[in-house]
Amino acid sequence: MGKVPYTYMDSVSQGWAVTEADQSLLITGAAGRVGGLLRPLLARPGRRLRLLDLREPEPAAGADEELVIGSVTDLDAMVAACGGVDAVIHLGGQSAEEGFDTVLESNVYGTYAVLEAARRCGVDRVVLASSNHAAGFHDRRDGLPDGGLPADAPARPDTFYGWSKAAAEIAGRMYADKYGMDVVCLRIGLWFPRPPGLRGLAMWLSPEDGARLVEACLSAERPGFRTVWGISRNTRRWWSLTEGKSIGYFPVDDAERFADELIAGHGEPDFTADPVLTRVGGQWCDVPPGRPYRAGPVPEAGD
């Protein structure tokens, strides 16, 4: 089995401590937006990042990085990429709503290939990038427990994309139960440098907190299977941070510092009645399944 990952972020000092020798991490989807935010924040002395994607990332791989051009849907390529690493951070796949065959291949089969390759190579820790859209139809108007909506709330996907992420979580659960692997699923909110709209006041994940979250996933002692919300310590959050705290995730950033600017541009938000803000998946709940969608106006069924 792989070595226990060696670094963690101290949430008070925001410094770094080293507890073990060299470490190698595989990041799938490393050339994507989230991969680009995460890479520089994971760089540490003694740590090597193996970057896998269909294209070269920008900036190009550095001295402590290794580039692998390949697809998460290629099991042989994934087995080769997993060789000798201590943990896998799986960010790759289809990142928005598309036709069923596309999300099935990229996200469901792709996640299987990642988990199976890790198992074959003795890599016992995998961090899976899930999504809030795996739980998109949960609505705060239906009532919330103390502390907010739990990160392990039952899947209620809002799209085929959300369904594929729920399926990926269940695959992670099976590999954890059957093979004793540590699999942590991140139900990510909005992982951006700045909150991209009013929803972000509740569900923003800053780049720095994203790195804190991943480091917590890597450093937690034998977490088994976990599901954690990927959000910052936002004043208007309504999703629970308890599950993250249990693995050592203590976010620092708060979207409220962008509130005046966002409200000036979009109007005062109503987190009690506006379905875009009360549903986990927001406007994605209204997207016709299989219609290509990333953001903006929801396409009509005939579009």
Commentary on this structure:
- The protein is built from 9 helices and 11 strands.
- It has a single domain (7-286), classed as NAD(P)-binding Rossmann-like Domain (Rossmann fold, 3-Layer(aba) Sandwich).
- Residues 1-21 and 299-303 have low confidence and may be disordered.
- Strands 5-4-3-6-7-8-11 form a 7-stranded parallel beta sheet, sandwiched between helices. A two-stranded antiparallel ribbon has the order 1-2. A two-stranded parallel ribbon has the order 9-10.
- It is an alpha/beta fold.
- The chain has helices at 33-42, 75-82, 100-120, 160-179, 200-203, 207-219, 242-245, 259-266, 275-278, and strands spanning 7-9, 16-18, 23-28, 47-53, 65-69, 87-90, 125-129, 182-188, 190-191, 204-205, 225-230.
- The longest helix is centred in the middle third of the chain and has 21 residues, at 100-120.
- Helices cover 30% and strands 17% of the residues.
The ordered string of helix (H) and strand (E) elements is EEEHEEHEHEHEEHEHEHHH
User: In which order are the strands of the major sheet placed?
Assistant: 5-4-3-6-7-8-11
Q: State the helix count.
A: 9
> Based on DSSP secondary structure assignment, what is the total number of beta strands?
11
Report the CATH C-level class.
Alpha Beta
Q: Biggest β-sheet, characterized?
A: 7 strands, parallel
Low-confidence stretches: 1-21, 299-303
Question: Under the CATH scheme, which architecture would be assigned?
Answer: 3-Layer(aba) Sandwich
The Cα radius of gyration reads: 18 Å
- Overall pLDDT metric: 91
